[in-house]
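User: Teach me something about this protein's shape.
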Amino acid sequence: MSSTETELGYEAARDELVEVVRRLEAGGLSLEDSIALWERGEALAKTCESHLDGAKERIDAALAVVEEDVEG
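Assistant: First, the predicted structure itself:
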């Protein structure tokens, strides 16, 4: 993943991914343009997944602290 993609926030990556999907579904693109958009979409999906994984880790860590406080 390039540094540009990791710098892209979740919402921005998601919004761009929605636009990529919209353009692909609309059709009318050349094969080269379709492939380039597909590749961009794959990269954006990975960026979104990375952000979601990070959020899940933070939530899991916060829940572990709460559980320790309750049990402790």
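Now, about its shape. Residues 31-71 form the longest helix (41 residues). Residues 3-71 form a domain with the Helix Hairpins fold (CATH 1.10.287). If you'd like, I can walk through any region in more detail.
User: That's plenty for now, thanks!
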